[in-house]
Give the backbone structure.
Amino acid sequence: MSFSFPVSPAVKARLEKLGLYGDADLALHLPLRWEDETRVTAIRDLIPGQQAVVQAKVMEAEVLYRPRRQLVATVADDGGELIVRFLNFYPSQVQSLKPGRLFRIVGEVRGGFFGLEMVHPRCQPIQPDTPLPDRLTPVYPTTAGLGQAGLRKLVDKALHALDLAETLPQEIYAGMDLPGFAEALLQLHHPDSGLPLALLESREHPAFRRLAYDELLAQQFSLRLAREARASRRATPLKPGKFPQALLSALPFRLTAAQENAWREISGDLSGARPMRRLLQGDVGSGKTVIAALACLQAIESGMQAAIMAPTEILAEQHFSKLRGWFEPLGIEIAWLTSALTPAQKKQTVARIAAGEAGVAVGTHALFQKNVHFRNLGLAIVDEQHRFGVRQRLALSEKGAEPHQLMLSATPIPRTLAMSYFADLDVSTINELPPGRTPVATKLVADTRREEILRRVQAVCREGGQAYWVCPLIEESEKIDLQTALDTHAMLQAHLPELRVGLVHGRMKPSEKQAVMAAFQANRINLLVSTTVIEVGVDVPNASLMVIEHAERFGLSQLHQLRGRVGRGARESVCILLFQNPLSEDARSRLRIIYESADGFEIARRDLLLRGPGELLGARQSGAPMLRFANPERDRDLLERAARLGPELIERRPEAVAAHLERWLGARAGFSAG
Ligand code: ADP
Ligand code: MG
């Protein structure tokens, strides 16, 4: 993709900064908003705060030096006078503002001390009969050094040079009441002055929907093609055997129906020769780990190795001890690889993995480092997959020839996102919690009532229960973060001298963290003060109270994950969200959502509406383009249609699909991110 007209290197660099590499990108660079310059307003009708077009003659213009150097002109039409002020200006501007000359002046009106004025308006000398534009004026997103006028010209050139013919057969638009591609672009770049701006700006206008639909189709094509390409590669089939059954009968519980279902789907994929790419999603505490363990067993039984990668030391440690309990009776060795090991231990572990003595390796990022080699990795499992980047997940998979991949996620992905961004994956969903869980009561409490909360902590711990106290998140500084955790720990220990208060934070050595977590697990610590390191995965069923300080600073999925640490046992559980007034509008809606809903899917859906898909997708998308026009939740109807038609068009009209992808993706990578 490139520009079909000359563009200077400086301008090219700026366009690239905007992600624009060629004609098609420019044509799809849509205005942020539009200005109506199709009507002239008489000066006496001007209203401060308004954007307006005025046609007026220069009365006088002079360069003043007080309070600072500026060019000030008075202009007038039949009914009034207006001051025009420039704080930065060229000598040519002074020259051009000749008394008596007629100008068209576009800018924002302000009520100044000396009457109405415009600061830095656009001024164009005109004749009395110079026509007004008959279309709205686009205002584009731009970058320093690239002005609106210049960018407008470039976009118009691109629109002119491009072949805007339809790429896809017309029948896919049938009955949708959408304009053609060329017409939609023209309407969006240069809308008719009659078009209602509000409708355009809401992105519900048919012209906008047309582009959103085309973009969703491009995404479906790209992801489905990636999926087909993968299906033609070969993985080692992992045959189901007796190990999984042995684990199931040893467990103190039965799988829920949803777990059974997920396990059936995964087991089926593993036994095939296509490399599996499956996302197992299930709410916090829904029991994904045991499913991952079953998958490992299927790999081991086929003579292959499995790896489980977790984003934190604490979580990796938990998986390790849980799996060891399950696998040792079956005579399966597990290796544990984290940065917590001494060099000698590490060396030995790496050797056991390389020799194939360890059937399963559990660990953090340490797993995909250069010195780690598997004898034959058949299955790569990534827990809390959104915490890892695309590259890291790939790095783990590259430890085997073509291993099957299973990704676990406790941040449920709303259906619309799964259908769009995850269309290259298969998804299994665990949509129920194991029986016997007590729902967590959520309370919103202003932090002025701290004393009350302390008494509550005391009461819970006296009865043998345990509690978490999560310290506020301070984005800017890990140092302040740490200090806050230390202070909170000291404060709580001072107020609750009879309790054993522990502390865990991200700056601790892995071995220290481990020791604290083990003590908490064994109820040798009553109250655990922590930064968000306990956000994912930690499983201590006896803990039934969670206090989150400055809950207003946390994101929705974080709050949901944190809250998921309690309500895991038989004890009645409570999550107290301490907040500090005044609350921003945004914080208020987040707290309301978390208060009203305990269902991860519902929370994720509302999060998506609130913030768009960026957060939910996490690192998955880094490197792959985001949707620019479509919003899967808002444009659900378009998405469903695109998802239905995508595979069919790939099959029936491959050449049209290729042309459509070229238009929409061009130099960009596909939507697939591994
Ligand atoms: P998550 O899906 O959040 O990773 P875990 O796998 O950690 O959840 O499971 C949470 C807890 O529930 C664990 O203690 C696990 O052993 C237990 N568990 C899993 N499945 C069941 C089940 N079917 N019945 C009862 N308890 C279960
Ligand atoms: Mg988990």
In short: The first helix runs from residue 9 to 17.
